[in-house]
Design a protein that fits this description.
mainly alpha; two-stranded antiparallel ribbon; 7 helices; elongated
């Protein structure tokens, strides 16, 4: 059963390439990794890698149901992955609303509090720099 399920997941991961091609991009490196390592191993590796643009592209196309993460978290395939892998895939899908595209990398959008903290740190650095300049030699 498990081998059959792994083969089915592998087939779905290969089919993702074709689905993505229909919406305007070709995840060649994803496909190559799936072919070399198998669908399950490729998903296990990729789910923890930052900077994967495939999910970004699917977000833009409003097709997240075609993502590797969606397949990993589906009831049908959950048994192929560890709880940690499933949790990471779910976290990536849940974080869709707070992600923005930045030079091919997924980056969390700063919360208002962290933006304020960054502004305060920047102001403190500027004040310190002014004091250094104003002190006589």
């Amino acid at each position: 059963m498990n081998r059959t399920l792994q083969a089915k997941f592998h087939g779905e991961m290969l089919a993702l390439y074709d689905h993505c091609a229909r919406i305007g991009f070709r995840p060649v490196l994803f496909r190559r990794l799936v072919i070399l390592k198998g669908g399950v191993e490729a998903a296990r590796e990729l789910v923890f890698k930052p900077g994967t643009t495939g999910l970004e592209r699917l977000i833009e196309a409003k097709k997240t149901e075609l993502s590797m993460e969606a397949a990993m978290t589906s009831a049908q395939y959950r048994c192929l992955f560890s709880p940690l892998e499933i949790k990471e895939a779910a976290k990536r899908l849940e974080g869709i609303a707070t992600r923005e595209r930045s030079r091919g990398r997924l980056m969390a959008t700063a919360s208002p509090r962290s933006k304020q903290d960054a502004a305060n740190q920047h102001a403190a650095k500027q004040d310190a720099a002014k004091q250094d300049v104003q002190e006589p030699l």
